[in-house]
Amino acid sequence: MSYTMTCVTLKFNLTHTSMYGQLGLMDSMTHSEMYLFHDTLLVTISVIFLSVVLYYMMVTNTGFQVLNMENMAKLDTASEMIWTIVPLFVLCSLGIPSLALLYKLEYMGTVDLTYKVIGHQWYWSYGHGESSVDSYMVAEPTVGDLRLLDVDNRLSVPYGADIRFIVTSTDVIHAFSLPNFFVKCDAVPGRLNTSYVNSDVPGLAYGQCSEICGVNHSFMPICLEFVNWEGFMESVAGW
């Protein structure tokens, strides 16, 4: 019993997924700037919301005459410039990092490995070179498996490497989604879409199809296992 519990603890320590009762974003395996941008955006929106509420309360309060309509008409040009420049500064401070992160997510330059990801009803196929493997959801998970997330064939990829996924589908539209990497790539029949990931740490990353694709849409999970290069070569040799 102690040996089993040790294995389960080790597995969950290397698993990067959301847990019951968790607030906020799940643990990221890359792009830590996304968390900083998320927190900055949340604080900015909160400050703007509170400012609007306080302004409305002061204007509508008859006992508070600092910002009534007569005083508003007497505001000079400097005040008008302030309430024009400040929103412009806020929008630029949010828009420029957003565009930079979007470019970083969509383009990686040179890549180390390329996988072809094919969506089916209702499973995924992964191909590398001349080899390929099908990945189905585990119907009866064992101790330590995550319900509706674990698969029979995990996709093993080396951590620290730049990975490119070429995503398509054979039947209907699916979506290859990996929340740990802020990736959601549509799998469209007859079309090739590209997505990139890079993990700084080993472990498991889970995802699911994020496009309604039929009756078993909820039962086609994605599981990436980031290992060292030796483990990657062994897994590919077993395909």
UniProtKB/TrEMBL annotation:
Instruction: List the Pfam families hit by this protein, alphabetically.
Output: COX2 (PF00116), COX2_TM (PF02790)
Tell me which cofactor or cofactors this protein depends on.
Answer: Cu cation
Q: Name one GO molecular function term.
A: cytochrome-c oxidase activity
UniProt keywords (A-Z) are:
Copper, Electron transport, Magnesium, Membrane, Metal-binding, Mitochondrion, Mitochondrion inner membrane, Respiratory chain, Translocase, Transmembrane, Transmembrane helix, Transport
Any idea what this protein is called? Cytochrome c oxidase subunit 2
The terms describing its cellular component in GO are: mitochondrial inner membrane
Which biological process, per GO, is one annotated for this protein? ATP synthesis coupled electron transport
Membrane topology term reads: Multi-pass membrane protein
Which species is this UniProt entry from? Answer: Doliolum nationalis
- Reactions that this protein is recorded to catalyse: 4 Fe(II)-[cytochrome c] + O2 + 8 H(+)(in) = 4 Fe(III)-[cytochrome c] + 2 H2O + 4 H(+)(out)
